[in-house]
Design a protein that fits this description.
mainly alpha; 0% strand
Length: 167
């Protein structure tokens, strides 16, 4: 229960950092998605049971912070969360490698869905320009932040979620 209750305050704090600090750190025009990294790191922890609440909280926060319509981040984080659930059933013994793999997958899904939504609702955006100026730099920043975020969230998850002892 504490896991569900702690999701929204942690995501609000992460959203504040996303809007103030990480939105100012750029490589070309790409920026890191801290909320996505937190959802990935929390969902990959084997002790967590209610990681869906973190995905929903992150989608609510990012919907408020972003110009993408409300369904965009629910779709993005839902796909990433389902992908993590699928991978945890087969590869959960390698969480650090999965963190990097899912960060690449999640960044590309996020960029692809965001590009599609913005391209459909606004004017046509040149794909090559978006790829070289936004998508690849954002992926690079997400990969740089993946390991520290995983370390912090793994410790937080261990403190909040009790280990399930099997006898």
């Amino acid at each position: 229960m504490l896991e569900v209750l702690s999701a929204f305050p942690v995501m609000v704090i992460a959203g504040i950092f996303q809007a103030t600090v990480f939105s100012r750190i750029h490589i070309l025009n790409g920026s890191a998605d801290l909320i996505l990294l937190i959802i990935i790191a929390w969902s990959l922890n084997p002790n967590t049971s209610f990681s869906w609440s973190w995905a929903v909280s992150g989608a609510i926060i990012m919907t408020y912070l972003s110009a993408i319509p409300f369904y965009g981040y629910f779709l993005i984080y839902g796909i990433v969360w389902l992908f993590i659930l699928f991978l945890k059933t087969f590869f959960w013994q390698m969480p650090l490698i999965l963190m990097l793999l899912v960060t690449i997958f999640g960044s590309l899904i996020s960029a692809g869905i965001s590009y599609g939504i913005l391209n459909f609702s606004v004017n046509t955006i040149d794909f090559n320009l978006a790829l070289t100026q936004i998508i690849i730099p954002s992926l690079t920043l997400n990969l740089l932040l993946a390991i520290p975020v995983y370390g912090l969230l793994n410790d937080l998850a261990s403190a909040i979620c009790r280990r399930k002892d099997v006898e």
